[in-house]
Amino acid sequence: MENFITQCKKYNLRITPQRTAVYKALMEDKTHPTADAVYQNVKKDCPNISLDTVNRTLISFSEFGIIDTVMCSGQGKKYDPNSKPHHHLKCVKCGKISDFYHQKYDSLKVPSEVEEEFTVLNKKVVLTVVCKKCNKKG
Amino acid sequence: MENFITQCKKYNLRITPQRTAVYKALMEDKTHPTADAVYQNVKKDCPNISLDTVNRTLISFSEFGIIDTVMCSGQGKKYDPNSKPHHHLKCVKCGKISDFYHQKYDSLKVPSEVEEEFTVLNKKVVLTVVCKKCNKKG
DNA sequence: TGACAAATAGGAGTTAATCCTATATAGTAT
DNA sequence: ATACTATATAGGATTAACTCCTATTTGTCA
Question: How far is CA A95 from CA A32, A131, A133, B23, in A?
């Protein structure tokens, strides 16, 4: 949670109870929730929070690289709160996105042309796949 | 276009004028269009096509790995028709997604644990960034 | 050429995301 | 502490994105 305060100060985001609750919910979330799923979770702590606030908070967190956004075929937007170095498997059939860990990928070097032009917040390898379950189905 | 026919036969997709038009529009598209942008383009060739058909076609193409789906903070779903090996830069501020090419990334080996469990259709490195323009703004 | 499953258009319906405005509140300076 | 100001919020209204439904059409294969 100190990390949350540090990040907010860095980006001039006020530390409100709503933002704190959203952050806390994300840190506890091991899935890749939709905005609505986050909303449902946060409401337990903070019953009066509005969906709009959750959406705005998620967008601002993602603009500062605190969380990542992901998407798969035929599915809505999802957020990825996992801050450890990790990589993604996206199943194009069921839309499930899973994290996987692979040290070799963690140490990828960003090309210097990119580093000169862009501030890199996050890097990951994304594998577009068909999972075992969906493979069986046809 | 022979490739289109091959792919359709492989996946039991009927070769309809609508599907052909969508495919053609995608192949000519060097951006990362939204479903609606694709719809607007296809209408030039195929004025009576419905948005629903475009959407269904995009989803089925993405389910077979013919195209990829991408997403950035605060933006809608986008499709990526670039079939050459390439990688992505996502600017979290303006939502722009750009392709970049880097041979070292192309030759990444998929971990054997993954290859045993999943059929890998596509692999790419995704760098979450802030672009030069957005960096200047704040 | 006929039969049938698959695909389509178009509209209706649903869900997700955004905008609007009045009110409340965090941070800062006093 | 207190007052001030810009930021953030709730809640409803609006818009946009997406999906579903049904009657009709059309590829494909025998």
Answer: 11, 10, 12, 22
Burial class (CB in 10 A: 0-12, 13-18, 19+), A86: middle
CA–CA min distance A89, chain B (Å): 9
Tens-place pLDDT, residues A56-69: 999 999 999 999 98
- Tell me whether residues A91 and B130 touch, CB distance under 8 A: no
pLDDT tens-place string over residues B85-126: 999 999 998 888 999 999 999 999 999 999 999 999 999 999
Neighbours of B37 (CB within 10 A): 17
Secondary structure (3-state) at B138: coil
- Chain B nearest C-alpha distance from A69 (Å): 6
* Nearest protein residue to nucleotide C24, judged by CA and C1' positions: A16
Closest CA to A1 of A15, A14, A11: A15
**Amino acid A95: pLDDT:** 86
Q: Which residues of chain A have pLDDT under 50?
A: none
State which residue has its Cα closest to the C1' atom of D26: B16
Q: Which domains are delineated in chain A?
A: 2-70 (1.10.10.10), 83-137 (3.30.1490.190)
Nearest to B100 among A91, A114, A121 (CB): A114
Q: Mean pLDDT in chain B?
A: 93
